[in-house]
Amino acid sequence: MKVLKIILFVVAILILLVIVLGMLGPKTYDVSRTAVIDAPKDIVYDQVSNLSNMVAWDPWKENDETMEVTIHGNDDEIGSYRRWESENSGVGEQKLTKVVPNELVETELRFIEPFESTSQGYMVLEDAENGGTKLTQGFKGENNFMGRAMSMIGMDMDAMVGPMFEKGLENIEAIAEEKAAEREKAKAELADSGYSFGLQEKPPMSYVLKREVVKFENMQEFYATHMPAIYTALGASGNEPAGMPSGIYYSWDEEKGETDMCAAIPVADSDIRIEGYETVTLPQGKAAKVVHMGAYEGLEGAHYAMDDYIKANGLNQNGPVVEHYVTDPMSEPDTAKWLTEIYYYVEE
Fold it and tell me: Could you tell me the residue range of the domain that residue 292 belongs to?
């Protein structure tokens, strides 16, 4: 009986201690870590504002092989979220709630299993004193009663989450600095390319076209078959082309050796309908342009140079690639004088 009284007394003391600690402990938490990354802000921002990119550097995902992550919505759009499900880390979601390009990303972190709670995550980007980007990762929220008590004995959010933030920042640093090095390499290669580039707002353009998935080795035959046929069909319908022909590319798959492409003739009227062909209008958009002088066999070099230009200027491709064949080979036999304008739809 005496032993039982002692046990009950100890339990009562412990309960009282938890109550006191819970009353004295902080009601809120704000955990953060900061790193200086040797990379431009736009490169770092792309890693912390894009839900898919977050998966690549997430230390919790790195440490948990059972974690499955799904993306809901567009990667960088307000309201989109990623959801994780794991035997070890439970279930939760991270939703984009606010973005200020190259400055701030805020998210709502909702933990669903094994316990429910909500926190606000944030990423703050600043210019570092000696160049590069100063990145602060953190999250904040309200401590429940037990959380307040635990924080008073050193088992607080900072101790539990801080080291993982440090690991995450290390991962971001490695990825961002590698991409920064790739950009500098692209700039160097661009300087030796011999091509000139420009950014422009490309107006909407309508085409009558034939679209198919074509093997690389059949591209020339595809053009030879469909370009004259479209011209003939246009004439038979009483319509005229609004310019020289174009090739439009929606995909380019090196592994399969095929491309989703179009033989296209520009037209002034987007309402033209010709049996066997589509009439498609490419909308107005920002486009990077490179000009190639010479035979079509040399176009590959212009595309490689455009890849370097896009990397060097921190652009993202956002649409098809258009080759506009300005020179008519039938009237100009000298291939050195053939002019091709190449457009890549992009976003900054």
Answer: 197-347
Considering only CA atoms, which of 194, 177, 183 is closest in space to residue 310? 183
Q: Which of 181, 208, 240 represents a domain boundary (last residue)?
A: 181
Cα distance between residue 343 and residue 322, in whole Å: 5
d(Cα 162, Cα 312) in Å, to the nearest integer? Answer: 34
Other CB atoms within 10 A of residue 23 CB: 11
Specify the amino acid at residue 161.
Answer: V
Q: According to the model, what pLDDT value does residue 35 have?
A: 95
Cβ partners under 8 Å of residue 158, min gap 6: 29, 31
Q: What is the pLDDT of residues 72-123, one digit of tens each?
A: 998 888 999 999 998 888 899 999 999 999 999 999 988 888 877 788 899 9
pTM equals: 0.65
Quick one: pLDDT band at residue 261, thresholds 50, 70, 90?
Answer: very high
Same domain for 260 and 152: no
pLDDT in tens, 161-196: 889 999 999 999 999 999 999 988 888 887 777 788
123: left (phi over 0), alpha (psi -120 to 50) or beta: beta
Q: How many domains does the chain have?
A: 2
- Residue ranges of alpha helices (H) inside the chain are 2-24, 41-49, 51-57, 59-63, 145-151, 157-191, 219-236, 299-312
The residue assigned the tokens 């995550």 is: 121
Q: How buried is residue 2: exposed, middle or buried, by Cβ count under 10 Å (0-12/13-18/19+)?
A: exposed
- In sequence order, which residues have a C-beta less than 8 Å from that of residue 15 and are 6 or more positions away? none
What CATH number has the domain bearing residue 44? 3.30.530.20
